[in-house]
Design brief:
Blueprint lengths: L1 H16 L9 H10 L7 H17 L4 H7 L2 H26 L6 E2 L2 E2 L1
Antiparallel strand pairs: 1-2
Helix pairs in contact: 1-2, 1-5, 2-3, 2-5, 3-5, 4-5
GO molecular function: phosphatidylglycerophosphatase activity
Protein name: YutG/PgpA domain-containing protein
InterPro entries: PgpA, PgpA-like_sf, YutG/PgpA
């Protein structure tokens, strides 16, 4: 739901502001972050790692995010590349949780 709302916000916002992917709108970033943390236990350590990793992946535009941003129209491309960055981040977080649970603020059996 939030991702679709983000597409709409960017469609309308870009038209009103007269610029594509305006820095004044961050719904796409929030959608990507929400995907990144959707299926992991939420600790402050995971939140910090997710934020920075998702931003780096979004800035670098790891494929297919680079294609989505350029080829998909309007808000679909603006939000789509962040969703891809969120998915990559989710995979990396899953690996990190399994390899270093204590570093993520988790015990070997879960949170705490």
């Amino acid at each position: 739901g939030f991702a679709l709302a983000s597409v709409w916000v960017h469609q309308v916002g870009d038209r009103v502001l007269g610029e594509k992917d305006s820095r004044k709108l961050v719904w796409d970033e929030l959608a990507g972050f929400m995907v990144a943390v959707a299926f992991v236990p939420f600790t402050w350590q995971i939140a910090v790692v997710a934020f920075f990793v998702e931003r780096i992946i979004d800035i670098v535009k790891v494929p297919p995010a680079n294609v989505i941003e350029k080829k998909w129209p309007g808000g679909w491309g603006v939000v789509g590349d962040d969703i891809v960055a969120g998915l990559y981040t989710l995979v990396l977080l899953q690996l990190l949780i399994r390899l270093a649970p204590a570093w993520c603020g988790l015990s070997s059996t879960g949170i705490g």
